[in-house]
From TrEMBL:
<feature type="domain" description="Thioredoxin">
    <location>
        <begin position="15"/>
        <end position="140"/>
    </location>
</feature>
<dbReference type="InterPro" id="IPR051099">
    <property type="entry name" value="AGR/TXD"/>
</dbReference>
<keyword id="KW-0732">Signal</keyword>
<dbReference type="InterPro" id="IPR017937">
    <property type="entry name" value="Thioredoxin_CS"/>
</dbReference>
<dbReference type="InterPro" id="IPR004879">
    <property type="entry name" value="Ssp411-like_TRX"/>
</dbReference>
<dbReference type="Pfam" id="PF03190">
    <property type="entry name" value="Thioredox_DsbH"/>
</dbReference>
<dbReference type="InterPro" id="IPR036249">
    <property type="entry name" value="Thioredoxin-like_sf"/>
</dbReference>
<keyword id="KW-0676">Redox-active center</keyword>
<dbReference type="InterPro" id="IPR013766">
    <property type="entry name" value="Thioredoxin_domain"/>
</dbReference>
<protein>
    <submittedName>
        <fullName>DUF255 domain-containing protein</fullName>
    </submittedName>
</protein>
């Protein structure tokens, strides 16, 4: 009898206990930053801060499918004090967004509780092994982002180290330091090295400043580099850097104010007016349009009606900064309230969507539609557009 009971008990453990064992997840602290910091100091652990938003598809995937895996849960629960914050809705999340300034979501931060400084930072999601790998890096002081930056400041310049640092900084969206390291890397290259395929790939991956010496060198010598790497490829690389700058100008317009935003547009126009690479004329038009829109919606809309937005190919549409970048339309056009123009913009977006196949781009278009509908106070359509945006995010 005892033997039978023992067998039944062991069977229950193997079935019931096994089910329980497979349901572990990261234990997140209550959404009180001060208490989390105090706990981390007492236990002498780093804080893992998951910065997310309610509309972020990859954030939801992490929460539902990665943080719930036993291997991830066990490692994070053992080594960190874990905190998750909606950076737009949670009170402490809004406060922390001003401190740590996430520019993309999810942003995953590993923070020293004694200084409240970030020791390691990445953006974007990933699979179980990736999420475990970044946690292991966070626990190794020399290989964290902060540790690597310290080694760079101390003079370490081996090519492999610098290439890895560039990748880490890009992944962390540490724009200022990323630009510094990437541009310094190219400043050290001679002409023969610049013509190497590997360094061309690094240029495409890491240069995003149209005022940098290396951008101007490639721009002025685009015919030569076109022979080496392909005319279309060189043109698209130059175009993309300009598009990123247009997006940055637009995305910071509310923070910088009207005058500085206009000045930045004019500076970019001045740089491009002397260029002759493929597609530059369309980029100049886009910059002029964006500048005009800030100054006078009516003048800007004349550019739209004259064909700036109509009858473009999908590749050309990628050059339109207020449709393509990671900022809602409202932050690029803070002065735009004209319902007629907003309605026409909405119709243009719907036409573009019919010939668009890129999920990230469709997601951005849907988010821009939501912003337009919100500005027109059409709540139901705005909610539908945001739902559509989330569905595209989940398809990536």
């Amino acid at each position: 009898m005892k033997r039978s009971f023992l067998l039944v008990f062991l069977l229950w453990i193997s079935i019931g206990g096994g089910v329980i064992a497979q349901n572990r997840s990261i234990r997140f602290e209550p959404k009180d930053w001060k208490k989390a910091v105090e706990k981390a100091r007492k236990e002498n652990k780093l804080i893992f801060l998951d910065c997310h938003t309610s509309w972020c598809g990859p954030c939801k995937n992490l929460a539902a499918n990665i943080f719930t895996k036993d291997a991830v849960a066990d490692f994070y629960n053992q080594n960190f004090i874990n905190v998750d914050m909606d950076m737009e809705k949670d009170v402490d999340g809004v406060m922390l967004s001003k401190v740590y300034k996430p520019t993309a979501f999810p942003t995953l931060l590993f923070i020293d509780p004694h200084t409240e400084l970030v020791v390691h930072r990445v953006t974007g999601g990933g699979d179980v092994e990736y999420i475990l790998s970044i946690a292991r890096v966070a626990l190794s002081s020399d290989n964290t982002l902060a540790g690597s930056c310290r080694r760079y400041r101390q003079g370490e310049r081996s090519p492999e180290f610098v290439k890895k640092l560039m990748n880490d900084l890009k992944l962390a969206h540490a724009k200022k330091m990323h630009r510094e390291v990437a541009e310094a890397y190219f400043d050290r290259l001679n002409q023969q090295q610049l013509e190497e395929k590997e360094n061309w790939e690094l240029f495409k991956a890491h240069i995003d400043n149209p005022y940098s010496a290396i951008f101007k060198k490639i721009m002025s010598g685009h015919i030569h580099y076109g022979r080496l790497f392909g005319e279309d490829e060189v043109a698209k690389a130059l175009q993309w850097i300009v598009i990123m700058e247009l997006g940055d100008i637009a995305g910071s317009s509310l923070e910088n104010g009207l005058q500085e935003t206009e000045n930045r547009y004019q500076e970019l126009i001045g740089l491009l007016e002397y260029a002759d690479f493929q597609g530059v004329s369309a980029l100049i038009t886009d910059a002029r349009f964006s500048k005009a829109l800030l100054q006078d919606c009516g003048t800007a809309w004349l550019i739209v009606q004259n064909g700036n937005l109509y009858n473009r190919t999908e590749d050309e549409i990628y050059g339109l900064p207020f449709f393509t970048f990671y900022y809602p339309l409202g932050s690029i056009m803070p002065v735009l309230e004209d319902r007629v123009i907003l309605t026409e913009l909405s119709e243009i977006i719907n036409r573009i969507k019919l010939r668009c196949t890129s999920m990230p781009y469709l997601a951005r278009l849907a988010l821009n539609s939501a912003v337009i509908y919100e500005k027109m106070r059409e709540t139901e359509k705005a909610e539908q557009a945001r739902t559509e945006y989330e569905s595209y995010c989940n398809m990536r």
